Amino acid sequence: MALKGRRSGLRRQARHGDAPEALELSLRYRPPLDWSALLAFLARRTVAGVEHVEDDVYLRTLRVEQDGAAHSGWVAVGLARHDSAVRIALSPSLSRAIPLVLARASRAFDLSCDPGQVAAALGALGARNPGLRLPGAFDGFEAAVRGILGQQVTVKSAHTLAGRFAAAFGEPVATPHPALRFAFPAPHRIAAVEPPQIAALGVVRTRASAIVSIARAIAQGQLRLEPTADVGATLEALRAIPGIGEWTAQYIAMRALAWPDAFPHSDYGVLKALGETDPRRALQRAEAWRPWRAYAVIHLWKSLEGT
User: Catalytic site residue 18?
Assistant: First the structure.
């Protein structure tokens, strides 16, 4: 679709019905950026009621805390018509937290990436699909929950469970978009929940307990799932939680911490793409891609599409 279509799609989403005029801003990036691949990745993993992809635009609800106050609303992100930039429309209810919203959008879409550095490290693997980015997260806790729910299940199954979880515990948010109904549950909300309440949604008990443990650690200030967190210490803290193994810890580091060198070496898709059966050999082969192994993961997953 032409860039003009992408921009008009953003305007349609930002000015739906009789909703108040949305605020529109932009963030630049270094090209190339494979927007279609990035949206496709996010679309397959959307949390129903919280996220939606339509007309080449990513929409979601968002709850942020700044200076002790909580702000809830929605954002819509699409490519700008001209220049190397993305356009971000956000509800007026988020106007007091614009810097925080933009920072989260930047990390969610990996806008600070230098594609040249990544391409140089990945070599032939990266040359097949230039412009692939490392999908981050608007919310670290949300990414962690998705990682736990995705343990040993298909992407589709994880999508279903995440939607149930958000519907059961999420905070209602008024939006002009029918697909957006509530914000993803905040850590302090889940910290007050008992594992059986989550297990009742069809979640394996150990995973339900792991979700509550992470929520309580965040609520108590013992864990930070943000790009500025210490990666080594965070990985160690995650591994210490029953129900969180190396795959989940690395996935959380990749999405929530935006760590470019994360590498879930036991991942089924990674092993299949590499033609390996031994995770240790996959880990050895990945040494050539340091310090950008997380980008290698995205390229390996991309190589499996259509197989």
Answer: no
